[in-house]
């Protein structure tokens, strides 16, 4: 009963997108050890040589601990001790099974997420790594090592990992935190009407984040937009703040990288008739490429007063207001039901549009 009470604390906090994993209750002792060897070895093989852009130190620390578990598990398998384990040891190994799966999910999350998203979630993800370290420490505290006849070198490695896990504190990389704060400062500057210089943005996006081209920038934008939609408003930072970062990334895609191969350029000459509702008359009379993100999805015209609705989408205030006044209760772009009719000014995007229009001599 005491062991069960201790392990009830191991599941308090979940890693991002963690599914409910069940320990292999039907496995024999030998099969359980073999499964753990395969799982831990696969984790080390997948992530030991993988250089993550963010969370490098936390990831390396976790993988090194898993490597020591591999040593322990291989010893249990090869020595034959896995066929005569105590009930407490079996409980501990089943908990290790869950812990390894949680480690895999967290490491996969760091590999598959976009750089901007990892930066915005820096504190939260660092906290998940810390939680796993604490769970490893708790697991080792209750693991009956004296009941298992370990060799001296294996026992030394386990004792060292246990000591390190107890001492380790929450680690947040200073360089990554500085980048995160710089990203928020960009948002503040845009909202206050100051546009960062091209060199400032290049230093951050290209040098700091390693986003080298338009395609990579588009991937970052799409990932952020996906988080806004998938979390349905239950997200930190809030959807309105995330939309500000999306607007900044879109601006940098246009400013720093130009257009990707699949980008449709709207080039309209004086000799062509203006397409109704497509772009403003002043722009239609020039040969110019307009970022499509500056258009309202309803009017297909340049937004003058962009606002964010409850689904996280941005529209021009006049068009979305008219849409709601007509009795519509859904988002025109996604079809999602509107949780409320509040319109939040997208100041970052408006400043970007104003900056772009000023740069091209176009009256807004």
Automatic annotation (TrEMBL):
Would the keyword Hydrolase be found if you checked this record's keyword annotation? Answer: no
U-box domain span? 289-363
**From its record, what is one biological process in GO terms?**
protein ubiquitination
Q: Which InterPro entries match?
A: Adaptor_Cbl_N_dom_sf (IPR036537), PUB12-19-like_N (IPR057623), RING-Ubox_PUB (IPR045210), Ubox_domain (IPR003613), Znf_RING/FYVE/PHD (IPR013083)
Give GO terms: molecular function aspect only.
ubiquitin-protein transferase activity
Q: Which SUPFAM superfamilies match?
A: RING/U-box
Among PANTHER family, the record links this protein to: U BOX DOMAIN-CONTAINING, U-BOX DOMAIN-CONTAINING PROTEIN 17
What's the name of the protein? U-box domain-containing protein
- Which species expresses this protein natively? Salix udensis
């Amino acid at each position: 009963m005491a062991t069960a009470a201790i392990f009830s604390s191991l599941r308090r906090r979940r890693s991002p997108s963690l599914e409910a994993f069940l320990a292999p209750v039907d496995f024999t002792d030998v099969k359980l050890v073999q499964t753990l060897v395969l799982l831990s070895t696969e984790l080390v093989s997948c992530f030991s040589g993988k250089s993550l852009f963010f969370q490098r130190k936390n990831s390396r620390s976790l993988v090194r601990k898993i490597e020591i578990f591999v040593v322990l598990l291989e010893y249990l398998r090869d020595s034959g001790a896995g066929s005569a384990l105590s009930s407490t040891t079996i409980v501990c190994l089943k908990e290790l099974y869950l812990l390894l799966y949680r480690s895999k999910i967290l490491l996969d999350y760091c590999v598959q997420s976009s750089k901007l998203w990892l930066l915005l979630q820096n504190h939260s993800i660092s906290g998940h790594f810390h939680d796993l370290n604490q769970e490893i420490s708790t697991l080792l505290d209750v693991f009956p090592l004296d009941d298992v006849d370990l060799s001296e070198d294996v026992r030394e490695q386990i004792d060292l990992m246990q000591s390190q896990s107890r001492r380790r504190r929450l680690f947040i990389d200073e360089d990554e935190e500085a980048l995160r704060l710089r990203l928020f400062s960009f948002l503040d500057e845009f909202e206050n009407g100051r546009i960062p210089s091209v060199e400032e943005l290049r230093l951050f996006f290209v040098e700091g984040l390693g986003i080298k081209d338009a395609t990579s920038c588009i991937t970052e934008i799409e990932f952020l937009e996906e988080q806004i939609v998938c979390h349905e408003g239950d997200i930190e930072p809030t959807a309105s703040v995330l939309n500000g970062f999306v607007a900044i990334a879109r601006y940098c895609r246009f400013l720093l990288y130009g257009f990707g191969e699949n980008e449709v350029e709207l080039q309209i000459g004086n000799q062509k008739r203006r397409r109704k509702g497509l772009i403003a008359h002043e722009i239609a009379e020039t040969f110019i490429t307009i970022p499509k993100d500056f258009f309202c999805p309803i009017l297909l015209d340049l937004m003058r007063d962009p606002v964010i609705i409850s689904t996280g989408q941005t529209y021009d205030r006049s068009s979305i207001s008219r849409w709601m006044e007509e009795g519509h209760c859904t988002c025109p772009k996604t079809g999602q039901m509107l949780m409320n009719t509040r319109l939040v000014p997208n100041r970052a995007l408006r400043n970007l549009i104003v900056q772009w229009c000023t740069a091209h001599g176009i009256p807004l």
